[in-house]
């Protein structure tokens, strides 16, 4: 008789895990207030007092700036838009290179292409999965203009090392903090550690407005450029008297009053949601560490992790079977999460495929005629060969496990089922040989 569910044995868990829903009466009331006003957005795409948006957007921005201790917060309709605005504000363009991470949501690395600049992938840290300062240094050329760092899974990037490198080479640093609201580095909030930072407010993130994002910076000039790119820069700069026209091609990346009203309520909930998540991760880390082939991820010294997902390293040499087979067996013991049933069991192998494996990089096709890689302004040589970032590839193919079974709604019995599934697969791993 088989013991493991994947071999036909009984499952550890037969009911769904609890849903993670943060939207409640407070958000309903906030939205009601906007609906009653009849003004769902109050932006104007010209140089006018409404260029900066309506009262909900502006108060949300002010509250966000206060919470994170930063001078400017600029609301946008997604973190992707926010990254595009931030990179546009840095002034990058054709012929420039921007160092990016291969192990992140694709938007943070594809963004340079929007400005016809070249994404250059550096490798990640073995222990923390963020960009590796040594690898960044190796990739710097006279063409490098900026670095997009990512607080991946909710852990702040190695600020001390990377900001020093950036300063030395006169580069701007853009921090993708989509996964790290509330994370901290040496007592300072993630998202505020670089020249510009971006948060996401999409439905999958710690707190959300459906879709949405926030760009933060202490730099007045960069902030104004972000505001222009958010809202039809080309139609505004003349009347406004903006002298620098680089990248002043605007988009409509404006947040509506509805999302801003929701966002203000969500921000109030962030501290509590984060603490519950951390409590769950602490418990899981303690329990899962007792399984010899699992090594829950370390936290960088003097940092607070915000655990968008919980990373775990897998040791095949101890378990004797490949990670993918082990995880398939763990998944078979468990159940999906309520309201997200169609997404499967929220435990996975690796995160995303190394981004330079995507067809856009393998085929060098972003715009017609191979631009911007073939642009005469570009004096470098693109390198996206498989093997380019060996740590990333190893993490992805063999070592990293990520899961989301630590959200605030998970109770101790729920967490115990997760632990029991891993422990059971470890115990009966010979059935998988
Ligand atoms: C979610 C995410 C984004 C994109 O956020 P959107 O608000 O959906 O555009 C960017 N970077 C990272 C690391 C993310 O996790």
Could you characterize what this model shows?
It is a single chain. With 433 residues, the chain is α/β, with parallel strands linked by helices. It has two domains: 137 residues, Aspartate Aminotransferase, domain 1 (Alpha-Beta Complex), CATH 3.90.1150.10; 242 residues, Type I PLP-dependent aspartate aminotransferase-like (Major domain) (Aspartate Aminotransferase, domain 2, 3-Layer(aba) Sandwich), CATH 3.40.640. It is 37% helix and 13% strand. The strands form three sheets. It has a seven-stranded mixed beta sheet, with helices on both faces. Strands 10-12-14-13 form a four-stranded antiparallel beta sheet. It starts with 24 loop residues before the first helix and ends in a 6-residue tail after the last helix. The model has no long low-confidence stretch (mean pLDDT 97). Pyridoxal-5'-phosphate (PLP) binds next to helix 3 and helix 4.
Based on DSSP secondary structure assignment, what is the total number of beta strands? 14
Instruction: Give the full name of the CATH homologous superfamily of the largest domain.
Output: Type I PLP-dependent aspartate aminotransferase-like (Major domain)
CATH architecture of the largest domain: 3-Layer(aba) Sandwich
Look up the CATH topology of the largest domain. Aspartate Aminotransferase, domain 2
- From the spread of the alpha carbons, the general shape counts as globular
The whole-angstrom Rg is 23 Å
Bound molecules: pyridoxal-5'-phosphate
Helical/strand content category:
alpha/beta
Residue runs with pLDDT of under 50 for 5 or more positions? none
SS element count, helices: 14
What number is the mean pLDDT?
A: 97
Largest sheet: 7 strands, mixed
The CATH class name of the largest domain reads Alpha Beta
Percent strand equals 5-15%
Number of domains: 2
What's the helix-strand series?
HHEHEHEHEHEEEEEHHHEEEHHEHHEH
Taking strands numbered 1, 2, ... along the chain, how are they ordered across the largest sheet?
1-9-8-5-4-2-3
- Distance N terminus to C terminus? 16 Å
State the helical fraction.
Answer: 25-40%
Oligomer: single chain
């Amino acid at each position: 008789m088989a013991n493991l569910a994947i071999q036909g044995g009984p499952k550890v868990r037969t009911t769904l895990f609890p849903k993670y829903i943060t939207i409640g009466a407070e958000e309903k009331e906030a939205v009601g207030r906007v609906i009653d006003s009849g003004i769902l957005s109050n932006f104007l795409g010209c140089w006018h007092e409404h260029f900066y948006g309506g009262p909900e957007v502006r108060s949300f921005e002010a509250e966000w700036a206060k919470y994170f201790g930063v001078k400017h917060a600029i609301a946008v309709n997604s973190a992707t838009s926010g990254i595009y605005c931030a990179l546009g504000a840095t002034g990058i363009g054709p012929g420039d290179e921007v160092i990016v991470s291969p192990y992140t949501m694709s938007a943070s690395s594809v963004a340079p292409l929007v400005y016809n600049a070249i994404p250059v992938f550096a490798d990640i840290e073995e222990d923390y999965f963020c960009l590796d300062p040594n690898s960044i240094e190796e990739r710097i050329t006279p063409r490098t203009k900026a670095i997009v760092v990512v607080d991946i899974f909710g852990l702040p990037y190695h600020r001390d090392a990377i900001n020093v490198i950036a300063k030395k080479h006169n580069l701007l640093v853009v921090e993708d903090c989509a996964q790290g609201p509330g994370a901290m580095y040496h007592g300072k909030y993630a998202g505020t550690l670089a020249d510009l930072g971006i948060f996401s407010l999409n439905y999958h993130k710690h707190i959300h407005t459906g879709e949405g994002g926030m760009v933060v910076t202490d730099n007045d000039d960069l902030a104004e450029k972000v505001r222009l790119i958010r809202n039809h820069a080309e139609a505004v700069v003349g009347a406004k008297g903006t002298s620098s026209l680089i990248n002043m091609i605007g988009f409509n990346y404006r947040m509506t009053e509805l999302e801003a009203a929701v966002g203000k309520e969500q921000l109030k909930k962030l501290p509590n949601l984060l603490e519950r998540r951390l409590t769950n991760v602490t418990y899981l880390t303690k329990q899962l560490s007792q399984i010899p082939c699992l090594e829950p991820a370390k936290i960088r010294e003097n940092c607070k992790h915000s655990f968008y997902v919980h990373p775990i390293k897998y040791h095949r040499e101890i378990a004797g079977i490949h990670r993918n087979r082990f995880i398939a067996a763990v998944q078979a013991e468990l159940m999906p999460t309520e309201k997200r049933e169609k997404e499967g069991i929220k435990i996975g192998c690796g995160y995303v495929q190394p981004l330079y494996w995507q067809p856009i990089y393998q085929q060098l096709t972003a715009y017609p005629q191979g631009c911007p890689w073939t642009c005469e302004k570009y004096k470098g040589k693109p390198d996206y060969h498989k093997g380019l970032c060996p740590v990333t590839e190893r993490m992805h193919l063999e070592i990293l496990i990520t899961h989301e079974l630590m959200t605030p709604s998970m109770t101790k019995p729920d967490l115990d089922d997760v632990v029991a599934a891993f422990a059971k697969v470890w115990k009966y791993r010979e059935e998988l040989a």
